[in-house]
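Deliverable D5.2: sample structural annotation.
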Amino acid sequence: MKHLLFFLFLIPFIGQGQSSSLKDVKQLLLDKKYKTAETNLESYLNAAPNDIEGIELLGDAYGQQKKWDEAIEIYEKLVNMRPNVANYHYKYGGALGMKALSVSKLRAVAFIGDIKSAFLKAAELDPKHINTRWALVELYMQLPGIVGGSKSKSLKYAEELEVLSTVDGYLAKGYIYEYDNEPELAETFYKKAIKIGGSLTCFEKLTNLYESNKQPEKAIANIEQAQNKHNRNALHYQIGKVAAEYNVELSKGEQCLLTYIKNYSAADGVPKAWANYRLAQIHKHKGNKSDALKYIDLAISALPKIKVFQQEKTDISKL
């Protein structure tokens, strides 16, 4: 249960017709001001204790802050108030799942039955609920067989996903075969997902597969395809990262990292310091000690508390 995609259930839904107060709360959630949203919702619900939408948003606010006990209580209340709403069962199962991930493996076993029941009920209530089927795909793959894990059940929900969304179905099957250590089958389905959908997520899944199987050249080629399709500066960093980590295609990696730094904006996500760190690695591989020190010093000056930067400088100094 290490990588279940329960976080999807935390994304607030912005609908129409809600009160002005709840509109403000939803904006707070979008702005990641979760504590303020929580405070406002608790005050709102004191005056309107049975407002379903307000209750759900409070659960979301708790979840975003990883207050799993509080989120579980809220979503269980929603399940009891509206037992035929699939999404409430899904969120309840998601909160239980995140709680299970936060405790010891021994304690987590106690949550498994309720998690499965919640997701299975959500799937039963809504035959088109994609997130629930994703959760079941992962749950059945990650649980040991002794407590109900089952590859065949996981594939069953992957098939259901494929009916609802071809891309999701292919990604789910890729995940199953990757988890089951069948990289060639996983590659096949990730490539199918790229062909049908071609989203950054599809490309990322295949890139991660190649990296985990120590195939950096394939990873770089796949990222380049993603760059040709999506033209994202962040992908320049990804190419440079793979080149630096695996000591391959160093010149290409260097040029991509320099391009990343030149075109950098906050939207790219990874700070420039990390690009300088990767450039230092590349020059270390090339034996260019002075250039490697120049770039690692740039990285350290920007983010002096990052331990791997300090270690990298120590390694470079030994050249």
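Annotation notes: Confidence is low (pLDDT under 50) at residues 1-18. The domain at 232-319 is CATH 1.25.40.10 (Serine Threonine Protein Phosphatase 5, Tetratricopeptide repeat).
The annotation will be released with the project's public dataset once the embargo ends.
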